[in-house]
TrEMBL record:
One of its GO terms (cellular component) is plasma membrane. One of its GO terms (molecular function) is oxidoreductase activity, acting on diphenols and related substances as donors, oxygen as acceptor. It comes from the Bacteria. GO terms for biological process: aerobic electron transport chain. It holds the Pfam family Cyt_bd_oxida_II. The gene is cydB. This is Cytochrome d ubiquinol oxidase subunit II. It is a multi-pass membrane protein.
């Protein structure tokens, strides 16, 4: 297997891992006003992701760094052309991070509500825009012979991209509800279960429409199989949540996200950024890649450090695996 193929797969895996792990973080943040009826419940919800949310963001940082080193032309065209979308994603992540840090610094309800709003917005905006970014990546954008984006920001908000954004928004919210069902106790866990059922049902139609559109316009045999897996996993998650199997329902939505993300990257390959105008202006894994020497050095470095990172993050999840009980949260 060529190094360009290996690194395309590696970047796809990094983004997929980010969507799975950060997806439930976004979901918890978006559901804060829905499930958190009083302060201790909202604090319990935040505590479920408190030890891991910043570690989950490392996946997208690593994906961006790998893209920069392995496919510098892809990185340059994507981040310059999608500048405003990435700026809004980054702004949302910053606002959310500040919300986590400052929420507990004040004692008034008004103070907490203000930072709760930052958590909600800082979760919903990236959850929607990541879907729009990936959809545009698969669909392609207008590029000139220098591989520079020639469209407008409004061109990135086309129907396919908006449907992709709606799909990730609802799917991450469902993922977060299943996570809260798994990681909390009592009435909060029961409400998360019921909310997950409603969100999962609401997710099914746009997700199916988006995936069918993807397969019809850009798909291949591999993406078709993965799309079928994603749809079946989403339906299985609904059935499992209905039966009160929170852990398996969460695993099902994780599989849904993984299969859908893999399908999109399979539909993209061997391109990395197609051109909707002259196909010759598009970027492929071959013409966007760094030199073989650079890719070889990166491969050795990844082989050494990636297992260590995975072990550390796995250990973190193991240490903080216990459910968060509302009654154990001190009264403010």
């Amino acid at each position: 297997m060529e190094l360009t193929t290996i690194w395309f797969i590696a970047i796809a895996v990094l983004f997929t891992g980010y969507f799975i792990l950060e997806g439930f973080d976004f979901g918890v943040g978006m559901l804060l006003p829905v499930l958190g009826r009083e302060e201790r419940e909202r604090r319990a919800m935040i505590n479920t992701i408190g030890p891991v949310w910043d570690g989950n963001e490392v996946w997208v940082i690593t994906a961006g760094g790998a893209m920069f080193a392995a496919f510098p032309h892809w990185y340059a065209s994507l981040f310059s052309g999608f500048y405003l979308l990435f700026f809004l994603i980054l702004l949302g992540l910053i606002v959310r991070g500040v919300g986590f840090e400052y929420r507990g610094k004040g004692d008034t309800e008004r103070w907490r509500r203000g930072w709760d709003l930052c958590l909600i917005i800082g979760s919903a905006v990236p959850a929607f825009l990541w879907g729009a970014v990936v959809a545009n990546l698969v669909r392609g954008v207008p590029l000139d012979p220098n591989h520079d984006y020639t469209g407008s920001v409004w061109g990135l908000l086309n129907g396919y991209a908006l449907l992709g954004g709606l799909t990730t928004l609802l799917l991450f919210a469902t993922h977060g509800a299943y996570f809260l069902h798994l990681r909390t106790t009592g009435d909060l866990s029961a409400r998360a279960r019921r909310t997950g059922l409603r969100l999962g049902a609401a997710t099914a139609a746009p997700a199916l429409a988006f995936l069918v559109w993807t397969q019809a316009a850009h798909g291949n045999a591999a993406s078709l199989v993965l799309i079928a897996v994603a749809v079946l996993a989403l339906l299985a998650g609904l059935a499992l949540d209905y039966r009160g199997r929170g852990g398996w329902a969460f695993a099902a939505t994780a599989l849904t996200i993984a299969a859908a993300s893999a399908a999109l990257f399979c539909a993209l390959w061997p391109d990395v950024l197609p051109s909707t105008g002259d196909p010759a202006n598009g970027l492929t894994a071959q013409n966007a890649a760094a030199t073989d020497k650079t890719l070889g050095i990166m491969t050795w470095a990844a082989a050494v450090f990636l297992p260590l990172i995975l072990l550390y993050q796995g250990w973190t999840y193991w240490v903080f695996r216990q459910r968060v009980a509302v009654e154990r949260i001190p009264v403010a």
